[in-house]
Amino acid sequence: MSETGPPVVVVLGDDRPPLLERLGQAARLRQVTQKGLREALAEADVLLVWDFLTDALPEAWPEHGGPRWVHTASAGVDRLIFPALIDSDAVITNSRGVFERPIAEYVAGLVLAMAKDLPGTYDLQRSQIWRHRETERVAGTRAVVVGGGPIGRATARLLSALGLRTALVARTAREADPDFGRVHGFGELPRLLPEADWVVSAAPLTDETADMFDAATFGRMKRGARFINVGRGPLVVEDDLVAALREGRLGGAALDVFREEPLPGDSPLWQTPGLLVSPHMSADTHGWLEDLAEVFLSNFERWVSGRPLHNIVDKKLGYVPVAAADTPKIEEGM
């Protein structure tokens, strides 16, 4: 690690992030791929995980020393939660503030597309078939959004604005929430599922949430309900979801995240009836890479000046706690 001169900022990823030229002489940049990561970490003061799908960090993390600050260009930090990093003095921050509204809009689009059967309309159009159908009204239907962080909250707010009666479920129940009145705890999910027309998974991946959507969970859902996952792939037991769709228990589903990405060509998910597959794109809107760079640059300014960082992850919980959140607006700066 650097003892004199500007701090060493190691950027992990094949592609160079935009806007980093604004760092100027304030940092010594070193961009590496997974192959050069181990050597680079030994001298790094800061690690910017631009390739946030990497699995290379646990093996490359040094036994002694290492970066004092690790920032990831993602909301989820499950790939950073490994023993050596947890036990280190390194602070972890995420890119909270970039993804919430785009993902909420994507979920709202999926709800409307399924309720109005837009995929069916497109299929009939391609076959030049004129077939009048009736569709569903979403206002007045019930939604359960699982995940009480900023993505889940933004999603629940937008669904409520569409007229859905929305319940938000988080790790810990909370009373007198300013947006939802009550936030339900995970333990209340079995009681909420049988009344839900829509179930949205937007939770972080932790030991508590892994595999939470399995055969038992789908079995508790109302027959014909729809399921959407924009959280993390391992939240869902994919074979159980396939079975629930093929048996007609669920009326439809949409997955934007998967246990293995890219999704293998031989995965049964591609051909499962009633399932919409998208390639982990719900948060990615025009200009999102610049927004991610802005979050890092704003935090870098704080780090070099000794001010508290935004978006500090609780390494034991595996996410940024809502009560402790200090999320920046995307600011102009370095």
Automatic annotation (TrEMBL):
It comes from the Bacteria. Residues 29-313 form the D-isomer specific 2-hydroxyacid dehydrogenase catalytic domain. CDD domains: 2-Hacid_dh_1. Gene3D superfamilies: NAD(P)-binding Rossmann-like Domain (3.40.50.720). The keyword NAD applies. InterPro entries: D-isomer_2_OHA_DH_cat_dom (IPR006139), D-isomer_DH_CS (IPR029753), D-isomer_DH_NAD-bd (IPR006140), NAD(P)-bd_dom_sf (IPR036291). It holds the Pfam family 2-Hacid_dh_C. Keywords: NAD, Oxidoreductase. Residues 109-282 form the D-isomer specific 2-hydroxyacid dehydrogenase NAD-binding domain. Belongs to the D-isomer specific 2-hydroxyacid dehydrogenase family. This is D-2-hydroxyacid dehydrogenase.
